[in-house]
Design goal:
75% helix; rod-shaped
């Protein structure tokens, strides 16, 4: 009699293991998606400047691109953009 009742519950462990594996997969996917959305919200990553000094041509083009980006994002107005652009030229 005892043997029959134990065999009736033998199916529960494989089901619990399967549910655990599915939950782990779900959590892994959600964590990956959250990390991607946080990376996208932070914006593009900028590389650190090189240890060597850049030439003046590279520095002015870099400054110009930064100025262009700030103007495109709306951080500075048209007047400020034109004034700083003239200073760089």
């Amino acid at each position: 009699m005892m043997g029959n009742s134990m065999m009736g519950w033998a199916w529960i462990w494989p089901v619990l293991v399967l549910i655990g594996i599915v939950l782990l997969g779900y959590v892994a996917v959600r964590l990956t998606q959250n990390r991607r959305s946080l990376d996208q919200a932070a914006g593009p990553r900028r590389e650190s400047p090189p240890a060597q000094a850049a030439s003046s041509a590279d520095a002015s083009s870099s400054a110009r691109s930064i100025l262009d980006e700030r103007f495109a994002r709306g951080e500075i107005d048209d007047e400020e953009y034109r004034r700083r652009r003239a200073e760089l030229a």
